[in-house]
Amino acid sequence: MVLRQIYALYFSPTGGTEKIVSSIADTLSRLLELPVHSIDFTCLENRQKEYHFSNDSLVIIGTPVYAGRIPNKILPDFKKCIVGAGHTPVIPVCVYGNRNYDEALRELLLLSEENGCIPVAAAAMISQHAFSDTLAIGRPDIQDFKKLNFFSKNIAQLLKDDSTAVAIDYDRATPLAPYYTPLKADLTPARFLKAKPLTDLQKCSHCGLCVRKCPMNSISEENVSKVTGVCIKCQACIKICPAHAKYFVDEAFLSHVEMLENTYTERKEPTFIITN
Ligand SMILES: Cc1cc2nc3c(=O)[nH]c(=O)nc-3n(C[C@H](O)[C@H](O)[C@H](O)COP(=O)(O)O)c2cc1C
What we know:
Layout: E1 5-10, H1 16-32, E2 36-40, E3 51-52, E4 57-64, H2 75-81, E5 82-83, E6 88-96, H3 104-114, E7 117-119, E8 121-126, H4 142-161, E9 198-199, H5 209-213, H6 236-240, E10 246-247, H7 251-263, E11 271-274
Parallel strand pairs: 1-2, 1-4, 3-5, 4-6, 6-7, 6-8
Antiparallel strand pairs: 8-11, 9-10
Keywords: Iron, Iron-sulfur, Metal-binding
InterPro entries: 4Fe4S_Fe-S-bd (IPR017896), 4Fe4S_Fe_S_CS (IPR017900), EFR1-like (IPR047964), Flavodoxin/NO_synth (IPR008254), Flavoprotein-like_sf (IPR029039)
Organism: Anaerobutyricum soehngenii
């Protein structure tokens, strides 16, 4: 297959997906001697453009898993902005926080094909859970990157050997299952759709990092303690704040985090799919 460039496109509010997609892109770039163009889909401005990918571009698309699926508020942007040319080779990658990726990878595979791309490989990787300071802490780690490196090398070999892109085999027929319902510590449903981060104004230095990092542009520039738009609970503002001034107090949300930390303690391993 003649390829001319690699695109690394990721939505990544807390950085895990970016790390993983960039690692795959860098290995492939080195082995295939191709330039990499990164598209940070976290930034709202970048989600307002269309990206037309030719058949000689290899596209890596990364998304975190939210409630077992592609984040629902970002899904329309993925659908609208990624335009393949019919045979554009793509590597869908979903990144989850050690609970489960449920339907997210299949959803991203189906979306890629609907948008004119051919998935030649796919992966589900683990990264620290954005809600927690302990769940999947330190992931992706050395072991993950070793496996990722092996996977990327296999893809490079496949793309060097094959003259045409062949799609991986996966279940296209079964309808996607609904979103995962978050549970509280007592295992009843945790409803925290309306939860928003609060700001400790004693700690806040009004640096504006949270305003610029929010993928929904929902934090007011004039008053950073005001959430003026949709909050997708991505935790970008919490993680970026150098003063640790942002926090959640919503009881259902905190109880869900407690449940996750108590239940999903066993290490999950990555899943890799590649055409053979
Ligand atoms: C709103 C939300 C929902 C999440 N849902 C899931 C989930 O269903 N399963 C899971 O294992 N991790 C889940 N996570 C954890 C993320 O998938 C994980 O933290 C991922 O690394 C975030 O990607 P990022 O670092 O690129 O932002 C969720 C995180 C957020 C913020």
